[in-house]
Amino acid sequence: MVAVQCDRLVKKYDDVVAVDALSFSVDRGECFGLLGPNGAGKTTTIEILEGLLEPDAGDVQILGLRWRDHERELRQRLGVQLQETQLAEKLTVEETLRLFRSFYHRGRTIDELLRIVELESKRRSWVGKLSGGQKQRLAVACALAGDPDLLFLDEPTTGLDPQSRRQLWELLARFRTDGGTIVLTTHYMDEAETLCDRVAIVDHGKVIAQGSPRGLIDSLGAPRVVTHHGTLEDVFVALTGRHLREE
Amino acid sequence: MKSNARVIDRGGAHHPLIELAVARLREFVREPEALFWAFVFPILMSIALAIAFPGGGGKPAVVAIEPGAGSAAIRQTLSATPGITIRDVPPGGEERALRQGEVHLLIVPTDPPTYRFDAARDESRIARLLADDALKRAAGRADPFTAREQPVQIAGSRYVDWLIPGIVGMNIMGTSMWGIGFSVVQTRMRKLLKRLLASPMRKREYLLAQVGGRLVFLAPEAGVPLVFGAFVLGMPIQGSIATICIVCLVGALAFGGIGLLLASRARTFEAISGLMNLTMVPMWVLSGVFFSSANFPQPVQPIIQALPLTALIDALRDVVLEGAGVPGVSRELAVLAAWGVASFGIALRFFRWR
User: CATH homologous superfamily of domain B61-138?
Assistant: First the structure.
């Protein structure tokens, strides 16, 4: 069963082509990663899939449905975490979850959600008082409120410390064990290698390579440096001559 | 829809409309500055009014006397006259004191005396009459008769009685619009509106909850100045409390809708502040908060009468001072309802969620 199917998506901003005839599909139960540097078009792509942006051309089907005809049903079945959202600082963790949970017609209880994201001890804390990792887990809990079939995550661990990242990865792994599908964007190759069954490497709005992380690394042939395991970074460098994160 | 056929399970949460309004309310009460404006400001305003308009008795006429021969006699006569206060002005400062309104009448002790005053000022004309009367009587004028006087005070006819409903209307407008405008823009700046858009939340319910969440504070915002006016300043309340509540409620809904409309596109606090001031300042002037809007020329009256603040204040004055019921203010209520519905509809259509 196909969870996400997109064909030749195009999105332009003025003269800039953010997404350039991009196609891929994601199976149910899979974790699929869009990997690429900042400005590659990952966020634009995932926001088109989330029904927040209209593509200029191309076709999108989510869970076999199209946004134009089934927006309300899709919203009930998807979980979304956006890159820049700051939740209301003066609501508590529990109040925030209660608000998001009220939008869904089915799903988990507030207590279950708190347990899943390990925020039970913070239930009465104001969101503004949480650490970065806790805020991010709360954002994921809001996305999980309706017990979604499909979870969209836009750079879920950007800016988090290593321990918080690992905690979030474990949480996402548990969601997958329960049969959930994940589409995420990241510019961390270790994140893609840890979480994703398959990745699409995106650059300048195009998919330049697609496959399992292992398969992509192996396709480079024997590692060029003996002491160094091949990574997705090597794949990106081999394909573009640039590094993923240019800082 | 398939989802309507199923039993809806919200996992212990209430209807989204309630949860959204409660969330809005919680954010508001956790913001100390916002509470200050909603509760303390109306009280301060009312206290200022009480000081400016103490109950009973008119203001005394303030008279200055230029030094010279005969000024002592004039001073003696006037200081014994009720309703006149003599103010000593440093020599050479008389003209200035007159210009600034510190004294209402300047008497030059010529023979007969010379009165210098601004005939365009009511208080100066009154001071002239009082002083002239006292001086002539002292000079030996015989009064043909002394009329019997029956001083009456008509409750509800004082300026302060007229002013308080205006303050209440202004307060409802200000708090409804600022409360909604700033919160919406802040939520937009935090990209939280976009996140809500990505959830199954209904847009209409979000906007309704913004307006509804504010109504809880209507009671103190409108009630404090009214109660203060009634019990401290002795303003009579002729109409029924229920009618006052209806007028305030419809007014708050109308301005809530206008607040949403102004906030529907704004992306920064600067933008929303500018729009709010652009909308509210003309109404403070035109809608008769501090002085009657009847002072404006006839051609602009249709515009003034169509303004929501004019409708709210006129309705409040009719109910509080004249005892009008709902039918008596139906035109004003219709104007307010039209503003509320139209601006809500336009806001829903053009709202920027990203």
Answer: Periplasmic binding protein-like II (3.40.190.10)
